[in-house]
Amino acid sequence: FKLYSLAGWGIGSSPTLVFPNNNIVFNDTNISFQWNSVDSIIKYTLQIATDSTFTSIVKQDTGIATTNYQDTLVANATYYWRIKGYSATDSTGWSSTWSFTLFSPQAITGLCLWLRSDSGIVSSGDTVSAWIDFSGFNNDATQATVSAQPLFTDSIAQLNNYGVLRFDGTNDWM
After folding, report:
1. Count of CB atoms within 10 A of residue 10's CB?
2. Nearest C-alpha neighbor of 11 from the set 61, 65, 63, 84
3. How distant is the alpha carbon of residue 13 from its chain centre?
4. What is the pTM of this model?
5. 137: left (phi > 0), else alpha (psi -120 to 50), else beta?
6. What are the residue ranges in the chain where pLDDT is below 50?
7. Which residue, 65, 96, 127, 137, has fewest beta-carbon neighbours within 10 Å?
C-alpha cells in the first residue's frame, strides 16, 4: 500500500481577466470587473492596487461568488487588478495582472466638450436629438429639427462594437 500526496497539484489554471481590458483608459469611475470562471471554484478574491506589486491595495474582497464585481474608484489614477480562485480545499495562483487608468475629463487643459458615442445619446428610434456633454461644462449638442438629426447605430464591429453617430454630410448637424 502506497500513500500519495496530492499537495501541490492545485486546481489548475488561474482565472483569466476579461474587463477592464489591460491598459485601457476611460472616465467612468463605476467599474464592472469581469473574469472567466475556473472549474471547481466556489469563490474568488479580487485585489485592486495603485502599484503593480500590490503593496498599495485600495480594495480587496475575498468572498466573491460570481465572475463579476462592481466598484467605484477615484478618477485620475492608474489601477492594477488581479483575481485568485478558491475551491473547498485549494486555490489557484493569482491571475495575470492588468492595469487601467481612470481620468476626469475636467483634468484635460482647455477641454470644453466631451461627447461619447456609448453614453449620453438622446434618441427617438434611430435619430438623435441630443448628445450629452461629459466634460462637466453642460455644452450639450442638440437638434430639434428631425430632418437634420444624425442617425445612431449602436454597434459597429470595426470600432470594437461601440456606437456611432452618422451625419449625412448634407444637412445633419447638432
Report:
1. 13
2. 84
3. 23
4. 0.69
5. alpha
6. 3-9
7. 65
